[in-house]
Design goal:
The protein has a nine-stranded mixed β-sheet with strand order 11-10-18-17-16-12-13-14-19. An eight-stranded mixed β-sheet has the order 7-5-4-1-2-3-8-9, with helices on both faces. Helix content is 35%, strand content 21%. The protein has 14 helices and 19 strands. The chain folds into two domains: 4-228, Endonuclease, Chain A; 236-459, Endonuclease, Chain A (2-Layer Sandwich), CATH 3.30.870. α10 (289-297) links the parallel β12 (277-282) and β13 (301-307). α7 runs antiparallel to α8 (195-211), α9 (247-265) packs parallel to α10 (289-297) and α11 (324-341) packs across α14 (447-456). With 460 residues, it is of the alpha+beta class.
């Protein structure tokens, strides 16, 4: 699926059809999502055996006011205290005096819970989209639906259960109280000092999955045996830099190394470029330094889509956050400067494959009237004219924030299926249909924004 409306209808349908379990992970649930809450309530009422688990970000879900995610879920928690389990993750990066003085609106800058998992029974919908109206209507993202894949569903549920062990539990304050409470279950560890515990829990979970010893997951000697198909492999990747879990960095380093070796070994001496083509996109484009270096040092032809300033989710915001789109323009300018210095600038027409002579990097920006852009991921083809055979998808924006501050879950999928490869090509083509050449070199970045990026650039 390619449209936000399709994503929303699929999500509602999964919740309404659920028979055994519902498991959802998002940054937050928007205050206007009464239809989504009603769907959860209806399913839980109709099926007394149905269990539901949610993992959300604590800071984003408990913002001051009467319309927070926590308050939105309160009636369900009261009605289904034994069957609805809501965990709220709090990043330990913000602690001590800073935790007391940073205003609630800005505390998310020190890290969030970012995985986007939407599952029911053995169906899983993986995306980068949150549970808010804009993501259901006019905020472009990616959406991959896996139907009837019990091992993948069990992995995702197990990941959420594991993460709940170093998160707060959201509970009603009391039977008659119109408020919620946050319960911390581990008296041995302060909730601001969970780094070692989180590292141990996540690393152990991944290791057990790889060894095939996690209860209910079956044999995962090949960590990609999620789909039950011989022509599709899926590998889960956890990135939680604040805990020292950096699987995404290792995976991308291995990917670039493999592609570089493969390309060099297949070189025919022909001047016409016929090597691999990588498509990369991020709605908040500011490549993490290690990833930037991989792109610049490789010999892969690389096409990148970033959000235009108007398509940035912070465009038009009041206060300091209104400077964020301009901040990304500055990061893009710096990136393209590095591309030129490395001699990697794309110099030919995007579709004129016959004119290509060697590798290059092209930056485009996505813009659609009235829409914002939130898609992220990577697609890889063996040659420019071929269909993609690999994609990276999930929650990561591939920037410094994703690498070091947020907790991310992404997946790498490799396929030899002609039909699935055509669908991946269609996904890229649909995104590129609203992309045009990057114009950031002509935009002026104010001194105030430059100072802001110097102070908080790692949070972008």
């Amino acid at each position: 699926m390619q449209q936000p409306t399709e994503f929303y209808q699929c999500l509602l349908d999964m919740i309404r059809r659920a028979e055994r379990r519902i498991f959802l992970s998002s940054l937050y649930i928007g205050s206007e999502e009464t239809e989504l809450i009603d769907a959860l309530q209806t399913s839980l009422r109709a099926k007394p055996w149905l269990q539901a688990r949610l993992v959300l970000d604590l800071n984003r879900s408990t913002r001051p006011g009467s319309s927070s995610t926590a308050r939105l879920l309160l009636p369900l928690l009261k009605e289904f205290p034994e069957r609805l389990h809501v965990s709220l993750f709090r990043s330990p990066k913000l602690k001590g005096l800073m935790a007391k003085v940073v205003p609630p609106r800005f505390n998310e800058g020190w890290g969030t819970w970012h995985p986007k998992i939407y599952g029911a029974d053995d169906d899983v919908l993986l995306s980068g989209a949150n549970l808010n109206t804009s993501y259901f209507t006019d905020r472009q993202d990616r959406y991959l639906h896996f139907s009837g894949h019990a091992p993948l569903a069990q992995y995702c549920l197990g990941f959420l259960q594991t993460s709940s062990r170093f998160s707060y539990r959201l509970l009603p304050a009391g039977p008659s109280a119109d408020d919620y409470s946050l319960y911390w279950h581990d008296s041995r560890i302060h909730p601001h000092n969970i780094e070692k515990k989180a590292d141990l829990e996540l690393s152990t979970y991944q290791a057990m999955c790889r060894l095939g010893s996690t209860a209910g997951l079956g044999n995962f000697n090949k960590m990609g045996d999620f789909t039950g198909r011989r022509d599709v492999l899926i590998f889960p990747i956890i990135q939680a830099g604040q805990f020292g879990v950096r699987e995404e960095e290792r995976a991308l380093s291995m990917l670039f190394h493999h592609m570089s070796e493969h390309h060099n070994s297949d070189s025919s001496g022909n001047n016409q470029y016929d090597g691999p083509l990588m498509d990369l996109t991020s709605g908040y484009f500011g490549l993490y330094k290690d990833y930037r270096d991989l792109v610049l040092r490789s010999d892969l032809r690389t096409r990148i889509i970033a959000a235009s300033p108007k398509a940035n989710g912070f465009y038009g915001s009041k206060g300091v956050s209104g400077r964020i789109p301009e901040g990304y323009t500055l990061l893009e300018q710096r990136f393209m400067g590095a591309v030129r210095r490395a001699g990697r600038e794309w110099k030919h027409n995007d579709t004129d494959w016959a004119a290509l002579r060697g590798p290059g990097v092209q930056l485009s920006e996505w813009e659609r009237e009235g829409w914002t852009y939130h898609a992220k991921g990577i697609w890889l083809r063996p040659s420019p004219a071929a269909d993609p055979y690999m994609t990276l998808f999930g929650s990561t924006n591939l920037n410094s924030r994703s690498a070091n501050l947020d907790t991310e879950l992404s997946f790498m999928m490799v396929t030899s299926s002609p039909e699935l490869r055509r669908q991946l090509r269609g996904e890229v083509d649909a995104l590129r249909a609203h992309a045009h050449p990057w114009r950031g070199q002509d935009r002026r970045v104010t001194l105030g924004t430059k100072a802001l990026v110097a102070m908080v650039g790692g949070m972008l």
